Amino acid sequence: MTKVAIKDMTFVEFRERLAEKPVIVIPLGSQEEQGPHAPMGDYMLSEKLAELVGEASGALIAPTIPFGYADVFRCVPGGIQLRAGTFCALLEDAITAFLDHGLTHIVLFNGHTGNTALIDQTVRGFKQSHGIIIPSINIWKAIPVSLWHRLHGDLGEKAGGHGADPITSVYYHLFPDLMRPDLIEKSSANKAFGLETSGLSAVRYGEAEVLVPLDVFDVNEHGLIGGDAGLSNAGIGKEFTDYIVSHASGFIRHFRQHDSRGFS
């Protein structure tokens, strides 16, 4: 089988693939809690999904950047959080390593939404310095509402949240032996200042939100932010996986046909 993960190639094998002018996919994830029932290393999902994307699209998959900007989870033991500057510098160096060898079609495959603002900051820097457009796919945000409702019916919106779907179902599909369904807890949000919390960054006051720097344990002692992991299963995880792979592979094939130095 043709190798797609760069970590599995000798440098001679990789050098031979340069003639294809491949798209390079850089997976990103995080080492953070995903509820009491799922492994903390969600970067494993980014890595596995990226390899499936490589097999479907012909892209080459860089080693996964396993740690992200995740200060809201710093209160939970076992996590590893990068400072904003560290994350940006690491991502910049990883991208530069491929640009140095003339590889200008690079796609970021991001499995941690907390990385999003720093990814944007970094790729804008490359646009200014190199004239290169580097797209980024947010793995979990790519799932359309229509698929949520097809898989979860009227509970579509209630099934999603941190510590629930889509990650819990995809874990059941890809890494079932690592799951602990016996530890599933219900998600319920604590109050702050006597006010309802809204996600991890705000409280509701009157008809508006007031931004406050919440940590995950401020909101829920089990690390759950919305959703119901009891609704998750491997069958749903396969559907999510198939969609993500199809979506990302289709974009990569499209992107390969266009100039990464512009929008033509």
From TrEMBL:
Keyword Hydrolase: yes
Highest taxon of the lineage: Bacteria
Entry keywords, A to Z: Hydrolase, Metal-binding, Zinc
Gene Ontology biological process terms in this record: riboflavin biosynthetic process
Gene3D superfamilies, sorted: Creatininase (3.40.50.10310)
Cofactor(s), names only, from the UniProt record: Zn(2+)
MF terms in GO: hydrolase activity, acting on carbon-nitrogen (but not peptide) bonds, in linear amides; metal ion binding
Keyword Transcription regulation in record: no
Record Pfam families: Creatininase (PF02633)
Similarity comment: family membership: Belongs to the creatininase superfamily.
PANTHER family registered for this protein in UniProt: 2-AMINO-5-FORMYLAMINO-6-RIBOSYLAMINOPYRIMIDIN-4(3H)-ONE 5'-MONOPHOSPHATE DEFORMYLASE, 3-DEHYDRO-SCYLLO-INOSOSE HYDROLASE
Protein name: Creatinine amidohydrolase
